[in-house]
Design a protein that fits this description.
Number of helices: 10
Radius of gyration: 21 Å
Structural class: mainly alpha
Number of domains: 1
Number of strands: 0
Strand content: under 5%
Oligomer: single chain
Shape: elongated
Order of helices and strands: HHHHHHHHHH
Low-confidence stretches: 1-16
Helix content: over 70%
Length: 274
């Protein structure tokens, strides 16, 4: 083999000239690698499979009766679409912890010598996590229908609500991947993540209508993107309330977070693997 042939991959790595087709092949290979990891470590799917069931049962049967005067079926119809908004946030935080753990264990060191675009590693993770969000949302809906959730619109509106939830959750994934590459330990990622998650989740319309909240908290929930997503999912599945405004706001948040944070995450990954 000639010297030129042996050094060609390294030259491609150093000058960063990787074509779109090659980049797609790299992403596909990394997606398969991540899926195989889940296959050999089924516990990695535990949060996606168990969390929606636990949350649906816990909040409906512990708080549902008190919030609706004993009419838990009414609360199921309110809470299940809201929980669709929360699921993506929980899974997004778990990937931040996983990315930090991969760096601490040296898993990411392998990519330093590979002639691949650094963005392909993160995009592959994003694709796999989006799939996990989809699975988690489907399990939530199955659980909701078992508990009495009623779809008052149609299957197309339900599909759109699921896609909107996964799209927004995917945009949050960039934030937690960046956080995972910036914090020193997985515990630090988890601690800071919960500090962000708790106000967003409970200071929203996911669990209860915002009309009963104090004025200052209502102002926060009005600008909370999880509230807008929960409102959009409820409108799409119930047929009641405005649809266009919360949907457009949610899409705006998803696009803005991706456009702003994704380049920062890719840049951070390049620095850590250089």
């Amino acid at each position: 083999m000639s010297t030129a042939t042996m050094t060609a991959p390294l030259r491609g790595k150093n000058d960063g000239r990787i074509g779109p087709r090659a980049n797609l092949r790299h992403i596909g290979a990394l997606v398969r690698r991540n899926v195989m990891q889940i296959r050999y470590e089924p516990f990695a799917m535990f949060d996606a499979l168990a969390q929606p069931i636990v949350f649906a049962l816990l909040f409906t049967y512990v708080f549902g009766g008190a919030m609706t005067g004993g009419n838990r079926s009414e609360y199921v119809n309110y809470f299940i679409p809201g929980l669709m908004a929360m699921g993506g946030l929980n899974i997004a935080m778990s990937i931040g912890i996983g990315v930090n753990d991969d760096f601490s264990k040296g898993v990411m060191d392998r990519f330093r010598t590979m002639p691949i675009a650094r963005s392909s590693v993160l995009i592959a993770k994003l694709i796999v996590e989006s799939g996990r969000m989809m699975v988690s949302t489907l399990i939530l809906l199955i659980m909701g229908f078992i508990m009495g959730f009623e779809l008052e619109t149609g299957p197309l509106e339900l599909v759109f609500a699921v896609v909107l939830s996964v799209l927004f959750g995917s945009s949050l994934t960039w934030i937690f991947m960046l956080l995972g590459m910036s914090m020193p330990t997985p515990q630090a990622v988890s601690g800071l993540g919960f500090m962000v998650m708790m106000p967003l989740q409970f200071g929203s319309s996911i669990f209860a209508p915002t009309a009963t909240m104090p004025g200052w908290l209502q102002s926060f929930t009005e600008y909370n993107p999880l509230s807008r997503l929960a409102d959009a999912a409820r409108a799409l599945t119930s047929g009641h309330g405005a649809v266009a405004e919360p949907v457009m706001v949610t899409l705006g948040w998803a696009v803005a977070l991706t456009v702003v944070v994704a380049p920062l995450a890719v840049r951070r990954f390049r620095i850590k693997t250089s």
